[in-house]
Amino acid sequence: MVEAGNDEELPAITIVTPSLNQGAYIGATVTSVLSQEYPALQYIIQDGGSNDATLDVLRAFPANSFELFCEKDAGQADALNRGFARANGAIYAYLNADDILLEGALKTVGRFFRDHPEVDVVYGNRLVIDEGGCEVGRWVLPGHAASVLRHVDYVPQETLFWRATLVSTPAGQFDAKLQFAMDWALLLRFLDQGARFAHIPRLLGGFRVHADQKTQAQMVSTGRAEMARLRNRYAAGRFSRLAGFCSHGVFLARHWWMERRHAGSIRGRECVGRGRSKV
To answer: What region holds the Glycosyltransferase 2-like domain (predicted)?
Structure first.
């Protein structure tokens, strides 16, 4: 259920979806955003030249539902930078073309930013869904831990939102040299800037697991190498590697306990990817 709340003076939110040949899933992604009925939303879809059903799916939505830009790019980070160059919201987020927002997510986030002006970055818990949109797992996080975030990216990307004021150049906020870790690099820069983070303890987004996404082999090779470089750049000298692993271990134990406690309250699994997505 989505709680009733005061929706006056909610901040404008800009969401960018980088798109390339996700015709099987992008319809559910777009529906999950538009069905939020958020009063101050700019939704940008940045397509890099899809040659599948993507554009046909997008054209089936009512005119002016979103801003669609079709142009070649140099990868996901470049597509995001191109999209955010057109952003005019006070709050930023991006949603991959195969993931979804859950019902009420934007109003939850908008109210939180409005009511907590001291907070710069927020994120929530994750629903993991399969190709058909059925739940296969959950990430229920114990809360924010800056020391852990400097060693490992535990933030569910599709639940991440940040204030536009953190970014001096929206068109260059993502490192185009990175394939997997560009969102973690952004978070590490925010930490270095002194940004204030908050975790919202509810499910905000759905991460889809399917055969066509970036492969596990790529993640093991390229992704780990990128993360190691970022870890050395941002965590070196702050505390020992052992201290980092210890804080990570404590966080994982709390994460496991939270998920076990939450699992006991789940009566059934829902399929959310094909229509309105529920928290």
So the answer is: 14-131
DSSP single-letter state for residue 21? S
DSSP H helices in the chain: 26-34, 54-59, 76-84, 105-115, 146-149, 182-193, 216-218, 224-235, 241-263
- Give the distance between the most distant pair of CA atoms in the chain: 55
155 within 8 A of 188, measured Cβ to Cβ: no
CA distance 3 to 83: 31
Q: Distance (Å, rounded) from C-alpha 173 to C-alpha 182?
A: 9
CA 172 to chain CA centroid, Å, is: 18
42 burial type by CB count under 10 A (0-12 exposed, 13-18 middle, 19+ buried): middle
205-261 pLDDT tens trace = 999 999 877 555 566 678 788 888 888 887 755 555 544 444 444 434 444 444 555
Which tokens sit at 120?
A: 């710069």
Flag whether the pTM goes above 0.90. Answer: no
Q: Where are the domains of the chain?
A: 13-263
3-state SS class at 148 = helix
Q: How far apart are CA 274 and CA 264, in angstroms?
A: 26
CATH of domain 13-263: 3.90.550.10
